[in-house]
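Quick one, tokens below:
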């Protein structure tokens, strides 16, 4: 009887978590756990994209806005980092999981990427080189 009760509780929690993932999705405002960047994730056609909406340090040491100065296209190097779309074409690959690309303004490169929800308020975003060397970042929902 006790085993049945424990099993029912575990099943209930798992179902509730699954519903939270399915209904919440990645849409919203997310802050990297270290506070460095805040991103708004929104639907973009049949996928999701994410735009930088805040930086912990929005200005450089000279008081100038941080720019996309490492962009390989010289014409884009004067764009402010705030407002850049850094997550693109994030398409569903499973329950609570998406795959697409991430642009890193720190080095001006675009990487394959994945997003995965862990409950309604925690998400990891990974960027990978050649699908092997990956770096994951933890984001916390702030809206």
């Amino acid at each position: 009887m006790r085993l049945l009760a424990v099993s029912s509780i575990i099943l209930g929690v798992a179902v509730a978590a699954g519903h939270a993932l399915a209904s919440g999705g990645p849409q919203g405002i997310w802050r990297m756990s270290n506070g460095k960047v805040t991103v708004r994730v929104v639907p973009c056609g049949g996928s999701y994209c994410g735009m930088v909406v805040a930086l912990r340090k929005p200005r450089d040491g000279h008081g100038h806005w941080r720019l996309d100065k490492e962009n390989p296209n010289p014409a884009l190097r004067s764009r402010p980092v705030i407002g850049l779309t850094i997550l693109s074409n994030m398409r569903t690959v499973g329950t609570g999981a998406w795959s697409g690309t991430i642009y890193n303004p720190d080095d001006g490169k675009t990487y394959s990427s994945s997003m995965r929800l862990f409950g309604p308020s925690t998400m990891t975003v990974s960027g990978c080189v050649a699908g092997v060397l990956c770096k994951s970042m933890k984001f916390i929902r702030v809206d």
